[in-house]
């Protein structure tokens, strides 16, 4: 216990120093974590694990994140818990022996854990003012009465001052319903690529890798790139969308949605949307690993209505209607490939 206390740095300290665990460290942490859940673990093994955690700050950070992930599994309710329950019931029914069951279940947990822990979700979200987890949406009412709807795995910081109302979108996507401000402070949503300033009331801002998509639902929005050099900002009207990079604003003929805010109601209303973009959204609702090659899925587009609260149902619909194969290898491991 004394050795653990002497580790010193908190998670926040480690993050501030950009002390991120490597893939190899996360994999070892997952193996240790699964082993220590077993009933026959020895005190010697527990001591070895403590020594491994103490050996490097990144080891302990990876371990702590796994503990957070494990608590999230314990908190699951309803349909979200069904994959885990079904997996354990299925493994037990196979009658392959106690150790084989644990090993197989542990492998599944490791895969899911590594995928989640290596994502930006863990380090961006834990320190954000507001954040959502897997398959979770949340409505945040701000001090001026404006509302933000956060999609799953979204993180934002709220920076209100006497001169502006600024929202920093760290990850995911948000729907903003903006109230008039009696002090006439502008309402600004900021990402790494630029800003989207409300000239009206309702719009969405989504992070897509190294780009930002802005879609206007009501009134007008001014989208500006991070760079101060030309081209100038773009004023978007109702029904218009644009993509921001660090240097440019590109107007889009279509956002790919018949309703850009449909995700806030638990579904996607799609209008010729690239499949890779749909899968990107579904990953925030899928408990585990979703593998696909974006380049090989290029050219496949989706139109229609897809539910997102049940990622399995959504993938089944996509698999039945598109030239793709959806394969499930473990309770949490799914691959999507283009049919040859």
Task: Report what the structure shows.
The protein is an alpha+beta fold and 340 residues long. The chain has three domains: 2-118, no CATH class; 131-255, Jelly Rolls (Sandwich); 266-338, Phage tail protein beta-alpha-beta fold (3-Layer(bab) Sandwich). It contains ten helices and 20 strands. It has helices spanning 2-5, 11-16, 23-36, 43-55, 57-74, 82-93, 98-117, 120-125, 275-282, 311-321; strands at residues 130-131, 138-141, 147-150, 155-160, 165-171, 173-177, 187-190, 194-198, 202-208, 211-218, 221-225, 234-236, 241-244, 249-252, 257-259, 267-274, 289-292, 301-307, 324-330, 333-338. The chain has a seven-stranded mixed β-sheet with strand order 1-4-5-7-8-11-12. Strands 2-3-6-9-10-13-14 form a seven-stranded antiparallel β-sheet, with no helix packed on it. It has a three-stranded antiparallel β-sheet with strand order 15-16-18. Strand 7 and strand 8 form a beta hairpin. Helix 3 runs antiparallel to helix 7 (98-117) and helix 6 runs antiparallel to helix 7. It is globular and about 65 Å long. The model is unreliable at 1-18, 76-105 and 117-121 (pLDDT under 50).
Summarize the structure.
With 340 residues, this protein is of the alpha+beta class. It has helices at residues 2-5, 11-16, 23-36, 43-55, 57-74, 82-93, 98-117, 120-125, 275-282, 311-321; strands at residues 130-131, 138-141, 147-150, 155-160, 165-171, 173-177, 187-190, 194-198, 202-208, 211-218, 221-225, 234-236, 241-244, 249-252, 257-259, 267-274, 289-292, 301-307, 324-330, 333-338.
């Amino acid at each position: 216990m004394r050795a653990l206390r002497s580790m010193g740095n908190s998670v926040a300290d480690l993050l501030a120093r950009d002390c991120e665990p490597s893939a190899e460290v996360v994999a070892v942490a997952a193996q240790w974590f699964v082993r220590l859940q077993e009933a026959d673990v020895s005190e010697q093994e527990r001591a070895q694990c403590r020594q491994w955690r103490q050996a490097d700050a990144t080891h302990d950070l990876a371990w702590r994140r796994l503990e957070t992930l494990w608590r999230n599994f314990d908190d699951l309710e309803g349909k979200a818990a069904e994959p885990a329950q079904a997996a354990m019931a299925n493994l037990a029914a196979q009658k392959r022996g106690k150790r084989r069951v644990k090993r197989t279940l542990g492998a599944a947990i490791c895969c899911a854990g590594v995928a989640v822990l290596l994502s930006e979700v863990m380090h961006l979200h834990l320190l954000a003012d507001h954040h959502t987890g897997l398959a979770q949406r949340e409505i945040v009412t701000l001090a001026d009465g404006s509302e933000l709807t956060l999609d799953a795995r979204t993180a934002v910081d709220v920076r209100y001052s006497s001169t502006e109302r600024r929202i920093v979108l760290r990850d995911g996507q948000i729907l903003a319903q903006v109230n008039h401000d009696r002090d006439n402070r502008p309402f600004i949503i900021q990402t790494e690529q630029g800003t989207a300033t409300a000239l009206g009331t309702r719009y969405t801002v989504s992070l897509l890798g190294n780009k930002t998509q802005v879609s206007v639902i009501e009134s007008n929005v001014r989208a500006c790139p991070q760079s101060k050099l030309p081209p100038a900002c773009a004023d978007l009207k109702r029904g218009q969308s644009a993509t921001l990079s660090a240097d440019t604003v590109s107007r889009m003929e279509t956002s790919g949605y018949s309703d850009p805010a449909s995700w806030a109601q638990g579904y996607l209303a799609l209008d010729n949307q690239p499949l890779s973009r749909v899968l990107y959204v579904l990953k925030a609702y899928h408990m585990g690993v979703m593998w696909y090659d974006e380049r090989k899925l290029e050219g496949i587009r989706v139109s229609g209505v897809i539910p997102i609260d049940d990622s399995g149902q959504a993938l089944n619909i996509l698999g039945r209607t598109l030239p793709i194969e959806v394969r499930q290898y473990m309770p949490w491991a799914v691959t999507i490939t283009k049919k040859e």
